[in-house]
Amino acid sequence: MQNKHSRSSAKKLSREKKPDIEMIRHSLAHLMAAAISKLYSGAKFGVGPAIDNGFYYDVELPDGAMPDLHRIEQEMRRLAKQNLSYVRKEMPIKEAVALFDKLDQPYKLDLLNDLAQLGTTDAQAIKELREVADGARGAKSVSVYETGEFVDLCRGPHVKTTAQLPLEGLKLTKIAGAYWRGNAQNTMLSRIYGVAFATKAELEDYIKLQEEIERRDHRTIAKRLKLFTFSEDVGPGLPIWLPNGARLLQLLENYVRDEEEKAGYQHVQMMHIARKRLYEISGHWEHYKEDMYAPIDVDGDQYVLKPMNCPHHIMVYKNDPHSYRDLPLRIAEMATVYRYEKSGELLGLSRVRGFTQNDAHIFCTLDQIDREFTQFFLLMKKIYKRAGIKDYWVRLSLHDSPDLAKYVHNEKMWKSAEAALEKALITAKVPYRKVKGEAAFYGPKADIMAKDVLGREYAISTIQIDFFLPERFDLEYVGKDGAKYRPVMIHRAILGSVERFIAFLLEHTGCDLPLWLAPRQIALITVADKHTAYAKTASAELRKNGFRVWELFDNESVGKKTREAQLQKLPYIAVIGDQEKKSKTITVRKSTAKKLTTFKLSALVEKMQKETR
Ligand SMILES: [Zn+2]
Ligand SMILES: [Zn+2]
Question: DSSP letter string over 31-94?
Fold first, then answer.
């Protein structure tokens, strides 16, 4: 929106010849409001901007009626056929107040009031005001646009007539609740969304992509596979892991824990609350308070829900005196932490209020960071490969020397840490990109970025060096020469948040999980009741060998049971009928393949064991 101010008049002229898509979208918002005021006499209007891919309008319908998208869209098309003009009128603000007062539009009056009076510092309000007037604050005059009988307070620009609107690229999509000015104290309006493109083909592509996103969305997958759920009684952003999901979570955690132990990490375990004092020492309370929950009073003392594991792991370090011979010390935990997220920003497992971090802190000397970084990237590569994650790169955030004041410690230390990180990336053969000036104040970091199937990019894990906390907690070790030194601390998480990692993994793989990670690995389907006894023996044999079996022994048809198992994404689907019963075999297919193969039970067990290794 703001860009428009800076565009040259030459550009404005060329745009008038052929309206740009944003102008079309904004003009469609007006047309939609015009249609709504025709259909629902007495409707009150909030704001209606153009947004990515379309537009919306916030409305309040008389008697709390729900907007009928189909009827509104039809009415828009009918009105557009009348070739209505968008007529701009400038008027003193007083005149506009009288006009919208007469039209009984309280939300427009609210905006006009702010426009006239300056005063507002609220970012959302200023954004809304920019929609309706150039002056934003302290305006003397405003412009209104007439479209047929509908009048709107608006800065424009708009198309000349509805004939310029490509209606073949229009579709009203959804209704959501939206508080007036985003404030929960105000009335809840209906936000009606439309998408709009220049052509029908673009609209169809967009709809197809949305369907694909919806199909791939981990929330859709999780619902079908019964992985996790939420409950209003438990509270938003606090996932409830169901048996299938909990198994997935634990399989992943156990695997990573084992790999970490092999790599020399020692796992510890902490409680979920701690004295506020701890985070005051660490500096989290000062810098991070907004992401934490309010303290809990325990016997007159203040405790908080644990937002970070670092200070806790520091307590593990401090429990013993250390010499250079103990280093590096690698302290790890599958740790639950709690962080405040606004309720509007919660999203499935991707944004939650409580989650599990696959966290670790490495305490070492400056000379050891090279090797620790390399080890980390190699371990990460191994784990990603096993989980089926491909195509990732590292975003290496470095300091900016002219801006040195905002960072801790000396430049020499920074330079050597940054060089070590880069060297480790080269040694471990991980593709990376450097970004100057993005480092945290306490040290350089590397974020591991990966794309999902739709090309959206996420930071899924991170490694970061810290010169600050060892100082805050006065950590030390005795060097070769008997003198005391400060260790460096490395924060690292391979899975980041395990919950978010699972969300990512489900979307990344379309839930075709590798066999070892599938909550249920093989579906056993009986043709008829007479096959159940043998099927039970087969099931017991598979279970005995550690496989997770889903028994489908009921009276449904084989076709129906197979489809269900495919939908539930079981890696192996096996059918047991007369032939199998007689020859003590099992006929299976991989969920993704058509080919059926008949195995002796022991041969199948061997094959599956090979695949999970
Ligand atoms: Zn407008
Ligand atoms: Zn940490």
Answer: HHHHHHHHHSTT-EE----EETTEEEEEEE-GGGPPP-HHHHHHHHHHHHHT--BEEEEEEEHH
